Fold:
Amino acid sequence: MKLIVLGASAGGGFPQWNCNCRNCAGVRDGSVRAKPRTQSSICVAADDSPDWALLNASPDILQQIKATPALQPARALRDTGIGGVLLVDGQIDHATGLFMLREQKTPMALWCTDPVHEDLSTGNPVLRVLEHYCGVDRQHIPLDGTPFRMPKVPGIEFSALPLSSKAAPYSPHREASVAGDNVGVTITDLNSGRKLFYAPGLGARTPEVHARLLAADCVMVDGTFWTDDEMIAAGLSTRTARDIGHLPQSGPDGMMEWLDELPRHVRKILIHINNTNPILDEASAERAELTRRGIEVAEDGWLIHI
Ligand code: MLT
Ligand code: MN
Ligand code: ZN
Structure:
């Protein structure tokens, strides 16, 4: 299976348009060694296939598609390499790109959970708006882990796991999460049997998530914040990382401790990095600590073979 990182940043991107934190200001003026990143999305396909699954539809999707020639196989006057779209939640950084995919003649094949479908039909009614353009061929993501496939994405199978994280701020269940507000996805290559576990929003350690991580050959997980109080310490928010559904990397019970428990052969990659996170600075002590532990920090444009 092949995977392209379309966008490795969390909501807001890096640098964020209105932010002058150390990282954002530093990447603009060159004083911090870091790479800009667009907002959260990946695509995956079987090795020999030109047809990709898009996981999350970022506000930056048009820029991401332009930067990724594989997503335009040009087999017809109007064509796309995107055979299906899967949303892991209904957050702005994962759903806004749906608007940009409206110019299709056939309904958009879209996999999402029931709570996300409801949020994207009410609080942020993008799916209702799209009815006036291409329309949406909505497919259920089963929450019990039942495997499912995308008919236009051969050779790949998906299986979702409900996660403890947060619905979008416009959702009526933002503060009282329901199962399916956020999912992680195991993506299996049916030919090789190899597995990726993808979870850009992951707020708590559970035995179920641990089992998914252990079963994967590559894990690509929540890299939003380094410390739980990162946004508070930066003077940008009053809420902790855990408050908004993201497990920080450092500290007791953090993501690093967790990834350390995985076997050495498992490739460990952080994605959905917030612009305040010191790991974006390639010269930082925090990045060096990740490197020492064999944990990578995703960059836009990475092509990964799993
Ligand atoms: C989150 O995952 O918390 C987000 O990146 C929020 C957003 O899209 O604004
Ligand atoms: Mn997000
Ligand atoms: Zn910033």
Q: What stands out?
A: The pocket of D-malate (ligand 1) is lined by residues 10-11, 91-93, 201, 244 (CB under 6 Å). Residues 22-29 form the longest helix (8 residues).
